[in-house]
């Protein structure tokens, strides 16, 4: 646990020191679970958005984008079920006064049992060596069986309580399993209560005329209410998808773990409209496509897994999460949901407007079914930071922190560095910069020793450092230094554009999806 926390702490400190993420309104001591992206963070975020957007709207002929407003007619949220059912079960510890999500406390307990079992198996695997039969061990070892039985029992009660919306039983599971507050260490719990996660505000200038509206808790509804506009004006035929990137807001009960759980965050969602009955085929299709997208980020295939939902949301008939192994364990970064016709049918009912699609092939009208892919931009950002962060000991006894981003995602593509600040080198370096800046985000840096400047670029993940020296003035060659290998090559200035482009072009990532 300590080392997990250490890992996250280091990441938070590094993100702040190098202009990736700052606490919001920090001069006023910040605002809970709200963050700002700095000069490097915004570039990384934009690159991620670009990769997602292009993977949706360039690679799929039948997917187009929109950008809908954050404010929507309040009936939208009645129809979507968010007013009545977008709740989390919360519980307070009376001693520490800390608030928790009851479901999360129980999920953490289940994860502890899984951990115990895995450790037991790992130990045995070491002991028995090659002859180890894991399946048999799991089925016969008494300690494993005992832990598995306890886990299964808690799990069954948990799933039932969620299904029945039984808040008393959720509390009882916490009590029976002696779950203690990590802060106070006590088991002095309040009742479990439902808490709606939507933020509201008022629109209109007079108190009589003011209307209560919500900050959208997901971008999806902006797509649902526009689906026919897009279908008709774009002459789209089912199956087709609509993609959108935008802010969403949730008044999260527990806001911990940095940008993993924020109250204002950004989603990248795609709703795919299909014929009723075809949804499972498309659900499987998008699961595969989306996992491939994550793997293309280059953080290691073993870092991802699917996690099917225990309790389906009110709108879904199948749902899974893509989880990434964060410094604090496997966590959801994307949800893939088969949402049936719940949303569209409900909007039809609440609005009184016919929003059926006429299928020219079937020659009939129906409310389409929807499969959605919903990824958190901030969580993906966090996964990239965590996966890219490396501390390295160097041969000369030095050490460095380097962010090994895929070059296509790196905030800065190249740093242009005159070896010394005289003899016409800065001017030459500026010339190179002025040429490259039309294609790539570059920085110019002439301060401190070249070694220090390299470290600064390593720390923000710049894939190329280009050093201009005396020789450059004579032969128009520069030294290019590669971030990961730290190898240096002498190359012609005229070749720089191509060398950099070959590595940083977003096409490299997109081609991995083909
Ligand atoms: P969780 O169970 O972690 O609260 P969720 O299942 O409610 O997440 P969805 O409603 O499926 O999340 O939202 C889709 C995606 O939006 C999530 O996979 C996640 O990446 C992102 N997301 C949701 N809530 C937050 C948040 N509070 N902060 C940052 N990202 C979020």
Structure, explained:
- The chain has 514 residues and is of the alpha+beta class.
- It folds into 3 domains: 39-86 and 197-389, Bira Bifunctional Protein, Domain 2 (BirA Bifunctional Protein, domain 2, 2-Layer Sandwich); 92-194, no CATH class; 394-513, Rossmann fold.
- The chain is built from 18 helices and 23 strands.
- The relative contact order is 0.12.
Task: Set out the fold topology.
Elements: H1 2-17, E1 21-23, E2 35-37, H2 39-57, E3 63-65, H3 75-79, H4 82-85, E4 87-92, E5 99-101, H5 102-128, H6 134-140, H7 142-164, H8 167-176, E6 193-196, E7 200-203, E8 211-214, H9 220-224, H10 227-233, E9 240-249, E10 264-274, H11 279-296, E11 304-308, E12 318-326, E13 329-340, H12 342-351, E14 357-359, E15 364-366, E16 369-376, H13 377-388, E17 389-393, E18 399-403, E19 414-418, H14 425-436, E20 442-444, H15 450-460, E21 464-468, H16 470-475, E22 477-482, E23 488-492, H17 496-504, H18 507-511
Parallel strand pairs: 3-9, 19-20, 19-21
Antiparallel strand pairs: 1-2, 4-5, 4-6, 7-8, 9-10, 10-16, 11-12, 12-13, 13-16, 14-15, 17-18, 21-22, 22-23
Helix pairs in contact: 2-13, 5-7, 5-8, 7-8
The structure holds adenosine-5'-triphosphate (ATP).
The site of adenosine-5'-triphosphate has 16 residues, from strand 10, strand 13, strand 16 and helix 13.
């Amino acid at each position: 646990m300590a080392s997990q926390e250490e890992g996250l702490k280091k990441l938070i400190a590094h993100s702040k020191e190098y202009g990736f993420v700052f606490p919001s309104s920090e001069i006023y001591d910040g605002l809970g679970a709200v963050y700002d992206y700095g000069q490097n963070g915004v570039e990384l975020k934009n690159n991620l958005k670009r990769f997602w957007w292009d993977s949706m709207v360039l690679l799929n002929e039948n997917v187009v984008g929109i950008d809908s407003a954050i404010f929507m007619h309040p009936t939208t949220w009645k129809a979507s079920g968010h007013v009545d059912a977008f709740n989390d079960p919360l519980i307070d510890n009376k001693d520490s006064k800390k608030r928790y999500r009851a479901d999360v406390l129980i999920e953490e307990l289940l994860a502890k049992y899984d951990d115990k079992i895995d450790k037991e198996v790992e130990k045995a695997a070491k002991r028995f060596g090659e002859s180890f039969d894991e399946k048999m061990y799991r089925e016969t070892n008494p300690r494993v069986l005992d832990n598995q039985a306890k886990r299964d029992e808690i799990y069954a009660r948990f799933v039932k309580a969620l299904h029945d919306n039984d808040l008393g039983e959720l509390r009882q599971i916490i009590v029976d399993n002696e779950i203690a507050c990590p802060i106070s260490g006590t088991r002095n719990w309040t009742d479990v209560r439902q808490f709606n996660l939507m933020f509201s505000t008022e629109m209109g200038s007079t108190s009589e005329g003011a209307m209560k509206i919500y900050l959208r808790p997901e971008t999806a509804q902006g797509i649902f209410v526009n689906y026919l506009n897009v279908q008709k004006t774009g002459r789209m035929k089912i199956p087709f998808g609509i993609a959108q990137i935008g802010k969403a807001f949730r008044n999260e009960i527990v806001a911990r773990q940095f940008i993993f759980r924020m109250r204002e965050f950004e989603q990248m969602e795609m709703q795919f409209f299909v014929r009723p009955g075809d949804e499972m085929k498309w659900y499987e299709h998008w699961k595969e496509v989306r996992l491939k997208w994550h793997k293309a980020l280059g953080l290691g295939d073993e870092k991802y897994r699917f996690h099917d939902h225990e309790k389906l949301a009110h709108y879904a008939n199948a749902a899974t999460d893509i989880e990434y192994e964060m410094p604090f364990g496997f966590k959801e970064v994307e949800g893939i949901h088969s949402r049936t016709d719940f949303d569209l049918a409900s909007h039809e009912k609440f609005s009184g407007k016919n929003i059926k699609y006429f299928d020219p092939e079937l020659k009939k009208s129906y409310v389409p079914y929807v499969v959605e892919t919903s990824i958190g931009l901030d969580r993906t950002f966090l996964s990239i930071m965590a996966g890219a962060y490396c501390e390295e000991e160097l041969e000369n006894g030095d050490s460095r922190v380097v962010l090994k981003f895929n070059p296509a995602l790196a905030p800065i593509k190249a740093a242009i560095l005159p070896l010394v600040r005289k003899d016409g080198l800065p001017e030459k370096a500026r010339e190179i910069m002025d040429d490259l800046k039309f294609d790539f985000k570059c920085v110019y840096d002439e301060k401190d020793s070249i070694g220090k400047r390299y470290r600064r670029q390593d720390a923000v993940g710049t894939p190329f450092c280009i050093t201009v020296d005396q020789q450059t003035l004579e032969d128009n060659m520069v030294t290019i230094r590669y971030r990961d290998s730290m190898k240096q090559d002498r190359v012609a200035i005229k070749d720089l554009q191509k060398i950099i482009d070959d590595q940083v072009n977003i096409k490299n990532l997109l081609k991995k999806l083909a």
